[in-house]
Design brief:
The complex is a heterodimer. By secondary structure, chain A is α+β, with helices and mostly antiparallel strands. Chain A has eleven helices and 24 strands. Chain B is mostly helical. Classes of the chains: A alpha+beta, B mainly alpha.
Amino acid sequence: MKEITCECGHVNPEGTVLCEACGKPVEKNQHIDGNEDKKLLNMRYDGSARRSQTYNRTIIDKIWNFFSSVKVGVSLIFIVVIASAIGTIFPQEEFISSNVDPSTHYRDQYGMAGQIYYQLGFHDLFSSWWFMLLLAMLGISIVIASIDRFFPLYKTLKKQKPKRHELFMKKQRIFGETQADNIDIDRFKANLKKRRFKLYEQDGHILAEKNRFARWGPYVNHIGLIIFLLGALLRFVPAFYVDEFIWVREGETTLISGTEGEFYIENKAFTLETYDKDNPEDARFKEAIESQDGAIPKTFRTDAVIYERTNQGVTGADPELEPIKEGSATMNNPLKFDDYALYQASYQLNEFSEMSFKIHDSDDEESNHGEFTIDLANPQSTYELDGGFRVEVVNYFPDYEMQDGQPASVSKYPRNPAFVFNLYPPGEETPETSFLGIGANIDAGQDNQYKLGLTSFDVRDVTGLTVKKDHTLGIISLGGAIFMIGVIQGMYWNHRRIWLQPRPDGAWIAGHTNKNWYALRMEIEKSIEGTQIEAPQDQYEMKS
Amino acid sequence: MGDLSTISGNLLYAAFFIYLIATLFFAATIRDKKKSKSKMAGNIGISLAIIGFLTQVGYFITRWIASGHAPISNLFEYTTFFGMMLVFAFIILYFIYRVDLLGLFALPIALLLIAFASMFPTEISPLVPSLQSHWLYIHVTTASLGQGILSVSFVAGLIFLISQVDQTRRTKHTTWLEFVIYVIAATLAFIIISSTFNALDYEATFEAPVEGQQTEVTYEMPALAGPNEGVMISEGVMSPIFHAPEWMRGEDAAKKFNTFLWSILGGLILYWGVRLIIRKRIAAAVQPLLNKKVNPELVDEISYRAVAIGFPVFTLGALIFAMIWAQQAWDRFWGWDPKEVWALITFFFYAAYLHLRLSRGWQGMKSAWLAVGGFGIIMFNLIAVNLIISGLHSYA
């Protein structure tokens, strides 16, 4: 380390642009902040010695310098901005219907542009490796740029002395010379104190300073951002984060996935309420309800009981359940228990639970050769009827739809069940085949002697719940809070310094702030009231 | 209750006209050369702006009582509220810097926003389950306040550009500035055209395939572009000049495209009409009026200050509160929904603005252009994301 000793006697680290104590420009380092031939000094980091501006030899130096550059940081921000904007042109993969194939969906929906969008991987942009890489680079840039600047700036502001070098004074943006022999220094100091400046004195030189802590705002908010990003990263650790989805039928008790067999839920009832223009409470929305085609939902609610398994770990044994909580989940009000929360995320109305059939003669619907009931959650392969008939379930389509002339099931949930039955009359070996669904009764083309008829059915609602465990929320919230504190600290307060230097024929005054120069000038004007000090000039010329 | 919503509507009208009159007084501050007199016009202007703001607060409260929830739940309500927050932000910055010109530009922008908002359905609508949360008030009002303050940055930036861009020759600066003015003209044209055809009860109905089903689509303004493969049912109305391209297949896509075309054309007529009369660039014509009044350094600082004040508010409202609510309602605090993404883009953009300004010394012209760009992003998120890119947030 080659240290630089200033004429004021202070020893500065290598790379210092302005002496930490007196502010005298270090001649050989003026190129660093572009001060050569300039009327004013670049005061951005008070001319402190930043690593990124000092060393550029090794590969580590080069990496450090790359990430500490604000130009690089801002470029990364703009790349993220453009990428994000592209990500909103067409819906992301997670927002399109789950039963379509993305590889054809984008082409079908959006034509050529959609095809290109898909091929470039923009349909899954926000979880693509390169988007993650961009965010990671942004994170690294935040850390390095902050370290690069914070420590030198902190040291410089700590070591600054009220007695400044003449050149420093003259090259401040706000500078004024007063020639007078009756300057009222005490009044000046009193004015400054009244304006909550802290005063430091050295041989008659005055430094008035306020709100230095505002300078730390950017670093505090960057720490917040980093904590936030780390919290988001922890979500990839299962111990910190569980995200599962379960369907629970009314009346059913089922294991809550993601809880390692520990918790069960019973769905007591799912309720969907809609706004009703005839309900006096909703009458004020009459116009809006009428102008809307469908019903407007008012509430989605699941009333449920949560059970804890008490014999956990006993393999093979039936779970013994003990209720631990009864409550409801609505949108905006998840049902919480233990470390978990259940969110009302989806629903399915009127799913079939049971269907009852009877066998009758093809030409006489009134006749009855026996009845049977299929539990759709647990259909059996054959049903033996009292009258000696046997019914075999050849094929079961829970959510039946004709696709390309063939019956198929579009989901595994019994929303529109249909069956292919083989019916064996008593003593017969060759079955009669028939196809049966809601509103469909096809006897497979043969001259069937018997027919199956739907006599009754039961429906129930199904609720879709998201199961969440999220231990990262605390970390993420902490990051957000620190970020906000830092932003407010940096934006709502301004670091201001005013220097007064006694001269044989009067005094010099100079001022510096990190932002809001107009307000600083107002403050100086008020501080010099009645002191005979002349208002300083703003030496800055805006180049528009 | 019906009465209360009528009162509410009238208060909004009143606020609109008070803002209009306040604008005229702020305009008078330019004409007056004597200092004392100009101060009086400015004082009346700001007083009226405050009265107008309070009147609009009255609209907000009465509508809240009438509907039982804060009126920020659809595009009309949100945009009027945004206009109100813009006025509020202007009032704050006025009292920091006392620049009359700010009012002359901020209030017309607020007027445009409120008028624009009124082009969308204004009836009181119920809240769907996901919106039933106190976070609706907290998140939306804070986000909107943040956007309002950031918009003042645009207003100051615009004043800076109009007064400072060299108008002696044609440059990129003059062209882009004219473009900004043209966009404002197109917004005005949209308002004029919509309200005209609305007053005439204009309707043209088509039958067109929407997602494979024949659906009736009703246009509220003459169809320049009819729906793709649409057949006109209405009689005695203008038939479309051409049909919307095939990829515009959403139910209202062609209709929105048609409205957009009308706005573009109306804007062109308004803009070129004025330009042909005054025979120079609009900004060039306005510049001499401002030059005496504008202190470029001060206007630049206002523009920056608005970002400095608005950025934390916006972050808190549009990102942090939004995340807390999203965590409650949708079980994840972040989901890359288009509206979320555009809020993040706004955040990043202003973060870049602050870095460029504080660390790289971007001031004046560059800074002013960034402020214009930021406002462009805010408006894109308000209008385009709601009307074109649909997502969980699109409530209009």
